Amino acid sequence: MASRVCVGFLVLVSSILLLLLLLSVSVYADEGEHEHVLTLDHSNFSDTVTKHDFIVVEFYAPWCGHCKKLAPEYEKAALVLSRHDPPVILAKVDASDEPNRELAKKFEIQGFPTIKILRNGGKSAQEYNGPREADGIVAYLKKQAGPASAEIKSAEDVSSLIDETRIFVVGVFPKFSGEEFEKFKVLAEKLRSDYDFGHTSNAKLLPHGGSVNGPTIRLLKPFDELFIDFQDFDVDALEKFIVEASVPIVTVYDKDPSNHPFVNTFFNTPNAKAMLFLNFSEEHLDAFKSKYKDVATAYKGKGISFLLGDSEASQNVFQYFGLKEDQTPLIFIQKKSGQKYLKTNLKPGHIATWLKEYMDGSLKPFVRSEPIPDDATANDLPTEAFDVQGFPTIYFRSASGNLLKYDGGRTKEDIIEFIQNNRDKSTQPSPVESSPVKKDEL
Ligand SMILES: *[C@@H]1O[C@H](CO)[C@@H](O)[C@H](O)[C@H]1NC(C)=O
Ligand SMILES: *[C@@H]1O[C@H](CO)[C@@H](O)[C@H](O)[C@H]1NC(C)=O
Q1: Which residues pair with 284 in a beta bridge?
Q2: Between 438 and 264, where is the model more confident?
Q3: Alpha carbon nearest to ligand 2 atom 10, residue
Q4: DSSP codes, 367-402
Q5: Which range of residues forms the domain containing residue 123?
Q6: Nearest protein CA to atom 12 of ligand 2, as residue
Q7: What's this model's pTM, rounded to 2 decimal places?
Q8: Is residue 100 in some structural domain?
Q9: 403 vs 83, 195, 423, CA distance in Å?
């Protein structure tokens, strides 16, 4: 009996040992495996790219923090996508390396990392505006590698293709041919990195259903009127319609990530930007919301956009502008010129009068207390303060003209360190010469 237990024990121990051995071998094999992301440089970039109908290229710099964070995710995605049918190729170029600078220039790279989707052997290039983690990268690129617009044939297609938290553009056509359909395809191809497109011959399947008369573009959105139909099939008119219809009357900034793409859109408009901040957990939210929305509706198309922010989610913004939480509710306007206007301890009844004074030009601009040193930002970029992935950030131009995206922390020390690390070593300009450039439209 004792010996049987003993033998059993030995078998157990040896199988554990064997398992450990196997595990260590497989870990070793994993480490030894080649990278799935192709490394390209000036010598082989063109040859590689011309061979592919679809290839994704990351332009990076070895010192860039966001690039280092992206690298393992990008590699994981490359592994998954290499098994896709047909395989999707992910590549990278060290754009900080002198001989590769021409490539970065050609593709108008203005910060790191920048990912470009190249089609038709590199004849067309499109900015990657997708997520930065592996699963998200895979899903986004699978969609980008497929047709620009997916056909909607059934209720199942509607639920699998249309995400109710996002904007979706559907073309409704009696038949999938003819001038209007061709224009729609051009449009979908042009805007595919920013919007999802579908087409159908059965309008009844769509959210908000109904019948449409002839070819129609329906834009579905998770805010305001929820959908808009449009029938002018000029490509530029269609594009303008989509861009304008995608901006909510009031953009909401809070902790809900599904709102963040709209915050991004808000900052990309050339309009003046009004931002009202208050604590969303407090009771008076609805009163502010409705008064603010009335004003925003009244000023639609008048060169000003509106954001409502939760002060709980906006600590960075407050720090950035030198505002204090005890000044909330507050409203803040930033003009394209950089001029700012502020009203603190706002009441719902103040909103309309204050905005009217602003529109009349009778408000005095506000001079902020300075949280960030002069040599780091001569500009103000509110996007920088919003913690939303994929935002354009502060850019620095070194004395020799290199453009670098600032991806460090928010404190004075972080920014000074970034400048010390990234100014041109050969010419040793003072940090003052490394003048920042504003980049608020990507
Ligand atoms: C391109 O050239 C670089 C440098 O010689 C090399 O490391 C890289 O593997 C090459 N890439 C391809 C796809 O041939
Ligand atoms: C917001 O209000 C809640 C509830 O009154 C409170 O607990 C929280 O501290 C407030 N947050 C801020 C940033 O003022």
Answers
A1: none
A2: 264
A3: 279
A4: -----S-TTT-SS--HHHHS--TT----EEE-TT--
A5: 38-145
A6: 312
A7: 0.66
A8: yes
A9: 36, 28, 10
Does any domain span residue 30? Answer: no
- Phi, psi torsion values for 149, nearest 5 degrees: -130, 135
Judge contact between 333 and 340, C-beta under 8 A.
Answer: yes
Same domain, 167 and 234: yes
Q: Is the pLDDT of residue 346 over 90?
A: yes
Residues with CB under 6 A from ligand 2: 279, 281-282, 311-312, 325
What is the token pair recorded at 89?
């190729």
- Looking up tokens 């939760």 gives 310
Instruction: Summarize pLDDT for 170-217 with one digit per residue, the tens.
Output: 999 999 999 999 999 999 999 988 899 999 999 999 998 877 889 999
Same domain, 279 and 323: yes
CATH of the domain at 114: 3.40.30.10
Residue 421 has a pLDDT of 62
- Ligand 2 atom closest to the CA of 281, numbered from 1: 2
Pocket test for ligand 2, best of 253, 255, 278, 279 (most atoms within 8 A of CB): 279
Q: Based on the structure, what is the number of domains in the chain? A: 4
On whether the CB atoms of residues 231 and 216 are closer than 8 A, the answer is yes
**Residue 26, in any domain of the structure:** no
Alpha-carbon distance of 56 to 125, in angstroms, equals 9
Tell me, what's the pLDDT at 413?
Answer: 55
Position 423 scores a pLDDT of 59
State the Cα–Cα distance between residues 41 and 210, nearest whole angstrom: 53
Label residue 319 by pLDDT band (50, 70, 90). Answer: confident
Residue 374 has pLDDT above 50, yes or no: no
Q: Are residues 255 and 356 in the same domain?
A: yes
